[in-house]
Write a structure and sequence with these properties.
The protein is α+β, with helices and mostly antiparallel strands. It is about 45% helix and about 30% strand. The chain has a domain at about 30-60 and about 70-93: IHF-like DNA-binding proteins (HU Protein, Chain A), CATH 4.10.520. A hairpin with a 3-residue loop joins strand 1 (about 45) and strand 2.
Length: about 90
């Protein structure tokens, strides 16, 4: 089961003893901060968790899997996540 915004807001509400509206505002503020930082091309590093980076992908040849038609995939930016060594160790223990 995936961790949803609703679940995170509920955890913030119970763990920090915040009203639900304040929990939603806090969560939304953090997400907006991460998004705006990535949009500006900067990395987001969360110690003990990982790093979100914006990478550039070059134009390349691709293929439509439904039709088999070859096409050119345009140059674009993607967000990648690299987990920290600490998180990796916790997941694998």
């Amino acid at each position: 089961m995936a961790l949803t915004k609703y679940t995170i807001v509920e955890k913030l509400q119970s763990n920090l003893d915040l009203p639900k509206t304040k929990s939603i505002e806090t969560f939304d503020s953090v997400i907006e901060l991460i998004k705006s930082t990535l949009e500006s091309g900067e990395d987001v590093l969360i110690s003990g968790f990982g790093k979100f980076c914006v990478r550039e992908k070059n134009q390349r040849k691709g293929r439509n899997p439904n039709t088999g038609q070859e096409l050119i995939l345009r140059h674009r930016k993607v967000v990648v996540f690299k987990c920290s060594g600490k998180l990796r160790a916790e997941i694998n223990s």
